[in-house]
UniProtKB/TrEMBL annotation:
Keywords: Transferase. One of its GO terms (molecular function) is transferase activity. This is Glycosyl transferase family 1. It comes from Methylobacterium radiotolerans. CDD domains: GT4_PimA-like.
Length: 414
């Protein structure tokens, strides 16, 4: 399932006027789009927020269906900010992270909302959103509706080789039959789908997450910054035990580095205890989730030690802002780094992580900042938010054309 992470939302990012958007390739059609997903937090939510704003700016009617129990006040504020762009409104219903009998109630709610607003695009995000958007029965009214699916890693990354992963992938194979359009956010997830789920060839696009022009502005660095910054969910799969051991290793070498960890998650207590056991209690500051850009300026290096990822916004945002980065070679992160991916660290390797951190800290500021600026510049064309929006709408148009009934042709006389 899509993992909630502490990433900035785009409530304050400027959306270009419709006239400034690139050609959308929709033939002038205006869609009624319902985005379906579970948690209104993290990178998945940021993706939905960005698409919603841009699709609404292009003249489409957009609505959301998501979980009622996650996100807290932060999600409430984000949804309130988004409300002017939601012609089809927001419906929040209970959604469990893992499979549960109450999923049938959520699926019913998606069906009722889709029929009530006359949606012609049901776009599911993440594993749970993908289930509800693709399997909600619409009856005869669903003949002209396309079902689009954007995986965000989730079930594709969940313990490959285990019985549960095989079960998830078997479910993906079955649901592929009800999928008109796959919109993979990275080549990595597309390859995971082909390797583990497979099945008949379906209409598919690789649509990278997009970054707004405002996010390329430098953030600056505060006086007396932390040496390292981590922003994300506090859980083991993010590689945080590896980061703590790497930090302890650096301390043993006489480098008394300080780490700022911003986020929340199920392993907060165990990570705090581990920091104490490693003698790092005074070297680490834990803070709750908050917008990423101000946090970037509070550290010299951003560290992303993940064991598994899809195409993380936290890396895109830090790279766009020209923040020096140490990241692992997992998921779609190499797609972000491009020609600089040789600098990525093997996941789960404490020694390699500590060496990479030390190497960047020992570089001259000119070398360190020059590499960060080069990566930022390479993102401008490859990860444009406008391009993301246009590619998604082009995918909808192609799926709708494929769905349209073909005109009956009278065979020529022999």
């Amino acid at each position: 399932m899509a993992a909630p992470i502490a990433a900035s939302l785009t409530a304050n990012l400027a959306v270009p006027p419709v006239a400034d958007l690139p050609s959308l390739g929709t033939g002038g059609e205006r869609h009624r789009i319902l985005h379906v997903f579970r948690a209104p937090v993290g990178g998945l939510f940021r993706h939905v927020v960005d698409l919603t704003r841009l699709q609404a700016a292009a003249g489409h009617a957009v609505g959301l269906v998501c979980d009622a129990s996650t996100g807290g006040e932060r999600a409430e504020r984000a949804l309130a900010d988004l409300a002017p762009h939601l012609a089809l409104g927001v419906v929040r219903v209970p959604m469990r992270r893992n499979p549960h009998p109450r999923d049938l109630q959520a699926m019913k709610a998606v069906r009722e909302r889709a029929l009530a607003v006359g949606a012609n695009v049901l776009h599911g995000h993440g594993a749970k959103g993908g289930v509800f958007a693709r399997l909600s029965p619409l009856g005869a009214a669903g003949h002209g509706v396309i079902r689009a699916y954007t995986p965000h890693g989730g079930s594709y990354n969940y313990r490959p080789g285990t019985a549960l992963h095989r079960l998830y992938m078997a479910a993906e194979r079955l649901m592929a039959r009800s999928t008109d359009l796959f919109l993979f956010e990275s080549e990595y997830v597309a390859s995971r789908h082909n390797a583990y789920a497979g099945g008949p060839q379906r209409l598919a696009r690789i649509v990278h997450n997009g970054i707004a022009e405002a996010e390329f502005a430098p953030v600056g660095t505060v006086p007396d910054p932390f040496d390292l910054v981590y922003v994300g969910e506090l859980r083991e799969a993010k590689g945080l035990p590896v980061l703590l051991r790497a930090l302890a290793r650096l301390h043993s070498e006489g480098r008394n580095l300080r780490l700022l960890m911003v986020g929340s998650g199920p392993d907060t207590e165990s990570l705090t205890a581990m920091a104490g056991a490693l003698g790092l209690a005074q070297a680490i500051a834990f803070e709750p989730p908050q917008a990423i850009r101000p946090v970037l300026g509070r550290g010299r290096i951003m560290v992303v030690p993940s064991l598994a990822e899809s195409l993380p916004y936290v890396v895109l945002e830090a790279a766009a802002a020209a923040q020096p980065l140490v990241a692992t070679n997992v998921g779609g992160i190499p797609e972000i780094f491009g020609s600089l991916s040789r600098d990525l660290v093997p996941p789960g390797d404490c020694s390699a992580l500590s060496r990479a951190i030390a190497r960047i800290l020992d570089e001259t500021p000119e070398t360190r900042e020059g590499r960060a600026r080069a990566l930022s510049a390479s993102l401008r064309t490859r990860f444009s938010m406008d391009r993301m929006a246009a590619d998604v709408l082009c995918g909808y148009a192609a799926a709708l054309r494929a769905r349209a009934p073909r005109p009956f042709a009278i065979p020529a006389s022999a």
